[in-house]
Amino acid sequence: MREEFKDFQETPTLTFHPFEEEKAPVPAAAPEKPAEVPVYEESILSEEEKKMVEDFSKQIDLHNSGMILQYGAGAQKKMADFSESALENVRTKDLGEVGDMLTNVVAELKSFDAVEEEKGVFGFFKKGTNKLGAMKSKYVKAEANVTKITRVLEGHQVQLMKDVAMLDKMYELNKTYFKELSMYILAGKKKLAQVRAEELPALMQKADQSGLPEDAQAVRDLDSMCGRFEKKLYDLELTRQISLQTAPQLRLIQENDTTMAEKIQSTLVNTVPLWKSQMVLALGVSHASQAAKAQREVTDMTNELLRKNAQTLKMATIETAKESERGIVDIETLKATNESLIATLDEVLRIQREGREKRQAAEIEMRKIEGELKSKLLSTVGAR
Length: 384
Hints:
The longest helix is centred in the last third of the chain and has 112 residues, at 213-324. α3 packs parallel to α6 and α4 (95-110) runs parallel beside α6. The protein has helices at residues 47-59, 65-70, 73-91, 95-110, 124-210, 213-324, 331-382. The chain folds into 2 domains: 3-286, no CATH class; 330-384. The relative contact order is 0.10. By secondary structure, it is mainly alpha-helical.
């Protein structure tokens, strides 16, 4: 229980001096015949408490205005202090912060997504490395944030559990104050009924018989005191009603604290460990997938290389065979060379023949010219 509740009494007490130190119990007055009044509240009291109410009601003095003023004030003061403490507890509790943290945990877990794969075949190894590295980086970042949040949530959970225990104590204290107020009201109603049924009629009869003004004033004073005391009892009933309403309110707050503590516990023992195990599985699957794809790429590249090498070997072998079966000089080349040589010889013979013919013709022409020249020279000599 918190410090603010350590001085609160856990058992109901009745006193005429609520703001003074406790004194020895006032001895019970001589037994009198109690007035018959309906007291439905007695059902919540034990036999000992009923006797306490009965004894206390006999000590109430409605002629004492100070007593009327202070009647039940101590219980009202304790109830007021209790309500203030309960209000302070609610005011200092920020369950919205806990809800925000739970939301942040979910957001962090949702932010962890696999990295999209790049297109293309030749960038596979670089792509796989980048993807795995990005997954690990995001996991480390998310894990750090989740760890930080879970530590704060653990502190809130401990505080919430303390608050639940404290609210249990507050609930029991409220029950005590409710019972104490009920006992004050019961005692007061018993006394009020007894005065109005016995003492007030006796004073009225005395005033009627004596005719003295002081007797008439005594009747009026007692009737006024009864009216004041009745109002005081009504105030106590209002305070008791507040205590009655406080009980479900305390339970509601307690249920909220318990629910929030359970949600935090579920997050700490279920959500976060499950997320971590799933991340381990995701990284393991990523490793296996990357290895499988690498093996597949290597196999494909090996098959492609074998096919290309086989095709190259085939072409080279065919060309080599062709060249090995080929002569040093092709027959076509020899034939073409021979034809060219024959054509050349024919052309040379033709040219020689034409040259010989032209020389013979030129020789004949030269003889003719020489003869004509000689004739001309001879003819020139005779003319002189």
